Amino acid sequence: MPSPPIVGLFVFAVILLGVFAGWAIGRRLPEDHLNTETRSLVSLSMAVVGTLSALVLGLLVSNANTSFSERNREITVLSANILRLESYARKLVTG
């Protein structure tokens, strides 16, 4: 698996390539594709994509938090059981 800096550079390069491709295609579009109605449609579409991305990231963080809390609870219960076992073992040894 590649290291995180390599993945970051790859993602940056892909995004940069997309920017340049969009810039080149945008220069060749006819004027009727560049009117205010089309711009508002693109703006609305980007708002929907941004909202859905935020929703997905929020659900991802929530799921990670739930998983962390569950593991934390399991560790706490396991630690309490070990302390009880140690206390029980001392009682058996001391009589």
Element layout with pairings:
Blueprint: H1 4-28, H2 36-94
Low-confidence stretches: none
Distance between the termini: 56 Å
Helix content: over 70%
Number of strand segments = 0
| Main sheet characteristics | none
Form type: elongated
Share of β-strand residues: under 5%
What report would you give on this structure?
The protein is 88% helix and 0% strand. By secondary structure, the chain is an all-alpha fold. The protein has a domain of 43 residues. The longest helix has 59 residues. The radius of gyration is 28 Å and the shape is elongated. The model has no long low-confidence stretch (mean pLDDT 92).
List keywords for this structure.
single chain, 95 residues, mainly alpha, 2 helices, 0% strand, elongated
